[in-house]
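User: I'm putting together notes for a lab meeting next week and I want to include a structural view of one of the chains we've been expressing. I don't have a solved structure, so I'd like a prediction I can at least talk through. The sequence is below, exactly as it appears in our construct file.
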Amino acid sequence: ANNNGLNRFQSDSYGLYVQDTVEFIPNWKATLGVRWDQMKANYYSVSNTGVVTQRKLDFGESSTRAALSYQPDADQHYYVAYSDSFSPTADLYQLTGATVYPAERSQVAEVGAKWLFLDGDLAFRTALYRANKDWERNTDLESTASILSKQRRTDGLEFEFKKYSENIRYP
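Assistant: Thanks for the context. Below is the predicted structure for the 171-residue chain, given as structure tokens.
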């Protein structure tokens, strides 16, 4: 029997995020945040040859963020930060394979600084970071196929110079 193929996909995603920054002693601030993400998905497929594929996905996890910053004056700011994140996906790994893989998760640790010069018209920012990502999905540029890389680590150093307009001043 030729069913001409049939695909149905329905997904609902929700997120709730709360964050607060508190100055606990002069010039020192702490930031704490938490996020809850929920994704539910249903996939139903009938191939041209009548093969039926059904998947139900239900992911729900929390992510956190924490930072400590020191700003001795308006022209300099130093910080350390950590965050983890949760990214549920309904991709071909989940929907067509025999295995349901966990959601992508990542953790980022960062230390950085920002300085203002020329009465605030020029800013210099730098940061050193490490990012770990688990269950990462990528696309193979040669074949356009998806690749499950499982884990990736990135160590980085960022530099940014920014000149502000005389008419626009960002805090």
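A couple of points you could mention at the meeting. The chain has a mean pLDDT of 83. The helical segments are 92-96.

User: Perfect, that's what I needed.
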